[in-house]
Amino acid sequence: MNSWKYYSDTVRAIVWTQSLANHPAVHRARKFLEHAEQIEIEDPPDGVWEPPPELANAGTILVRPPTSRMFGRCPGTHGHLCCNYLTVDVYVGCTIGCSYCIMQSYLRNRTLVVQIDSGESLEHIRQVAALHPDQMIRVGTGEVGDSLLFDPLFDLSRGYIEALAKIPNVRFELKSKTDYVDHLLDIPDPGRAVIAFSVNPQSIVDTEEGYAARLDERLAAARRASDAGYGLAFHFDPMIAVPGWETAYAGVVEKLGRFRDRDVAWVSLGTLRFPPTLQPYLQDAGYAAHEFVRSRDGKMRYLQPIRSGMYRRMRALLEEALPRTAVYLCMESEAVWKNVYAEAPVTQKQSVRDVLRPVHIRDVVGVDR
């Protein structure tokens, strides 16, 4: 997956606010986007830029200061257990084009936003780490966008990795469906930074994941990142109950077993879920014909026995392939957690508890959202 060809094929305009005109990330992006329309705008009084119709599309990148706090807690979902992840919203939106992408339903338009703050989010992470010196702080940039899709263009992850490298209880995670890691491999000390890959069987990548890198390309990038000193993580999210899913997903786990002697920090499991507003986007997807039920948070999910069965099977496979790695569920109900982990080894249950321990951030940011 060639990043520069991707930018050449997909980026039509870059817009930046006047206050960031001299920022190195803006200069870098403008240099590599010579083919694109380049526009400087005044900083809007309320921080919100309303693009004209011709720019309100996936071909436009807006670079701006954050309109609100960049650092906070993963919002989770009502009635379901949260993994207590902390987030920094650097890249907002994604243009890879996965058919199941939940962001299609709540982002106002498809314009990608790059948020550059003055260092406040980094300082918040440092303060949280200092307040919880005996606890692992999990924080990443992949909540509302792909962490690495546009990072070779702006090189913003580098500053976080270098600044947090000497803080032993911070695991800063970059999550991606690309293989764009090479621009970060020259950092001499990545500390405990984690480069994570969302994974699915290649058959699903081919039909549902748009411009995403092939599975083997992602795993090759994972090996390069590990060789450069990064920790790794893998996210099966969403798992899709296609015919033959057991064999297809077992094949992916078998490939991950090749990393059993590497630092694989965690693996998450989540099944397909979406708000009813996303239903029109899924009409042409074969998997949408499956039976779904509305959950407590209003999202549509597979029936609970189906989800629990998928998770139990994957948990067992992953415990064998990556015995030292915590495997947890993403946005699932307490009932499903109990179904899946009732027979889990004590060591696996404890490793999951260690990874998911909540971190209070109210004293740092004023709200524990």
Description of the structure:
The protein is of the alpha/beta class and 369 residues long. The chain has one domain (65-91, 114-362): pyruvate-formate lyase- activating enzyme (Alpha-Beta Horseshoe), CATH 3.80.30.30. The protein has 12 helices and 16 strands.
Briefly characterize the structure.
This protein has helices at 3-10, 24-32, 120-131, 151-154, 157-164, 202-208, 215-227, 245-256, 304-321, 334-341, 346-356, 362-365, and strands at residues 13-17, 37-41, 60-64, 71-73, 86-88, 91-92, 112-115, 137-140, 170-176, 194-198, 231-239, 264-271, 273-274, 292-294, 300-302, 326-329.
What structural class should be given to the helix and strand makeup? alpha/beta
> Which band does the percent of strand residues land in?
15-25%
Give the second-level CATH assignment, the architecture. Alpha-Beta Horseshoe
Mean pLDDT: 90
Total helix count?
Answer: 12
- Mind describing the biggest β-sheet? 8 strands, mixed
Percent range of helical residues: 25-40%
Element order, helices and strands?
HEHEEEEEEHEHHEEHHEHEEEEHEHHH
| First-to-last CA distance | 36 Å
Number of domains: 1
**Which CATH class applies here?**
Alpha Beta
CATH topological fold name: pyruvate-formate lyase- activating enzyme
Radius of gyration: 20 Å
User: Which regions are unreliable across 5 or more consecutive residues at pLDDT < 50?
Assistant: none
Shape verdict? globular
Q: What's the total number of strands?
A: 16
Q: Report strand order across the widest sheet.
A: 4-5-8-9-10-11-12-16
